[in-house]
Automatic annotation (TrEMBL):
This is OmpW family protein. InterPro entries: OMP/PagP_B-barrel (IPR011250), OMPW (IPR005618). Residues 1-29 form the signal peptide. Belongs to the OmpW/AlkL family. The keyword Disulfide bond does not apply. Keywords: Signal. The keyword Cell cycle does not apply. It comes from the Bacteria. It comes from Pseudochrobactrum kiredjianiae.
Amino acid sequence: MALFPANRHTCALLAATALTALAVQPVLAADAVVAPVEPQVTEAFPVALSPWQVRVRALGVITENKGHVDQVPGSGLKSSNTVVPELDISYYFTNNIAAELILGTTYSNITGKGAIDGLDVGKTWLLPPTLTLQYHFTDFGAFKPYIGAGVNYTFFYNQKNHDTDYLKIKNTFGGALQVGFDYMIDDHWGFNFDVKKLYLRPNFDVTVGGTEMSGKAKLDPWLIGTGITYRF
């Protein structure tokens, strides 16, 4: 008779234990759920620009209209102004330092003034490749001004004498100064405005009426250009 109560108490204890286990199981299951790992978003690296850049410009060539014939006191010379297309190629050594080579050709009609006013001396074509070393300012956002200095070597070709018997303008070196800016629309495309001063003073030989003479033309042109920039 004593065993029956003990069995009843044991059953109650087992039932309570079972209920406790059932209550704890959902909590343990919830704790066992691993929170989903959100994927990390990595920022794309900026595309590195090429060191090469090209520009295409319309270029105005405005000369100083000075010079003389050695054997004619009071003589002077003047040269025509022109507008021509021009291409330049730049290479960036750093973000600030670049070298620029301009390529373009133009012509000049040469006439006399002063003591030889009215003399149509002749016409020549010029090829003045100019190399400058530039400093580019990079603290103004899309507006990128620069300054430069360098050298040019001018070839005179396809020379024609008019009122003269003979004309020979000699190739020559000259200095160059430069200031300008690019305004970039995006990483590659932009607008450009550029001004250069060339110091160009070639010697020449000329024959007029059978008399051989010589002199110097002081062209010293301003090169004023505007156009489109493309950075590779």
